[in-house]
Recover the amino acids of this structure.
């Protein structure tokens, strides 16, 4: 009994955040944010406010000037996996742990939404190994266990770890199965070899008729720093331990150049292959970040 009370208290903060944000998004109404798979067309229904616009038959609207939504036989609930990158770079900036904090909060809110829809969800936390994997479920107990585990991730010691996300994702292709939504929360800071494996794994997952959502989290300070003439910035790469000392103005110029390369080498390959890519600046509010995802 005491253990149960302790677990509930540990997960209370995330539970409150998830409940408030999910309620604010839907104003107390049950509206599906994610959708399952259907096999056979059943009927049209007149569009009502709150219906998903993705179900609207726009061709029929063009012919009739009226909005109708399409419905199917054998409509199924969905299952969602969350792959959370726990490499050292995700725990930046050290002052507020904004990237990992917002990532954890986003997962909590999205799991709450899925649980309200009676859809299943599971999480894999990955650093230099698979440190946590939860099964697929949609019970209230499962949700609170996830809240508790996510809270624990924020208490981890500051360790220098390179994420094994690409290799573990590759090993989980068959376990994911088919017709799932796969969320991947990462800052995409990988070397070329890791990124090539990452793309290969995504391709195999997509081939199994899964939907992939890349949630690319980044902090504004990684791209530009406010500076005064003469200011020197010392920066330590928390995955390689390399230390750089540069005048702030030169640092910003270098970051602008590096960001252009990053877009070309990391982001554009995802867009060209048709994955659902979301660029999420963690300096924005949690509400706005969730709105971009759903």
């Amino acid at each position: 009994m005491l253990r149960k009370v302790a677990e509930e208290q540990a997960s209370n903060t995330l539970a409150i955040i998830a409940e408030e944000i999910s309620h604010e998004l839907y104003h107390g109404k049950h509206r599906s944010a994610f959708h399952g798979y259907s096999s056979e067309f059943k009927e049209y229904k007149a569009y009502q406010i709150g219906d998903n616009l993705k179900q609207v038959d726009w061709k029929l609207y063009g012919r009739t000037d009226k909005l109708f939504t399409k419905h199917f036989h054998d409509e199924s609930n969905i299952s969602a996996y969350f792959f959370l990158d726990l490499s050292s770079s995700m725990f930046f900036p050290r002052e507020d742990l904004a990237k990992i904090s917002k990532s954890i909060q986003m997962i909590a809110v999205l799991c709450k939404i899925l649980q309200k829809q009676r859809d299943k969800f599971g999480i894999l936390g990955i650093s230099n190994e698979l440190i946590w994997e939860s099964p697929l479920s949609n019970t209230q107990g499962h949700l609170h266990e996830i809240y508790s585990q996510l809270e624990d991730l924020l208490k981890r010691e500051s360790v220098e770890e390179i994420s094994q996300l690409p290799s573990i994702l590759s090993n989980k292709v068959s376990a994911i199965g088919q017709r799932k939504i796969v969320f991947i929360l990462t800052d995409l800071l990988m070397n070329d070899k890791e990124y090539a494996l990452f793309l290969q794994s995504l391709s195999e997952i997509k081939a199994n008729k899964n939907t992939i959502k890349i949630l690319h989290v980044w902090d504004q300070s990684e791209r530009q720093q406010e500076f005064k003439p003469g200011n020197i910035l010392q920066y330590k790469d928390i995955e390689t331990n390399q230390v750089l000392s540069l005048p702030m103005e030169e640092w910003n110029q270098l970051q602008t150049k590096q960001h252009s390369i990053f877009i070309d080498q990391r982001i554009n390959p995802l867009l060209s292959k048709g994955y659902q890519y979301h660029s999420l600046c963690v300096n924005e509010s949690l509400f706005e970040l969730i709105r971009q995802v759903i």
Q: What stands out?
A: The CA atoms of residues 142 and 161 lie 28 Å apart.
